[in-house]
Amino acid sequence: MLVDLKRTVAYICPFCSNISSRVLSVFNFSGTDRIQLICPTHNCHEVCVNITQKSDRYKIDVECPLCGERHTYSISRDSFWHKKIITYKCPAAGIDIFFAGGEKDVEKKLCESTELYPEALEELYEEDEDESFNLLYMIIERLHKLKDRRRISCVCGHEDVDFNIINGNIILTCARCKKSKLIETSEETLTRLLNAHAIIIGD
Question: pTM for this one?
Answer without folding.
Answer: 0.60
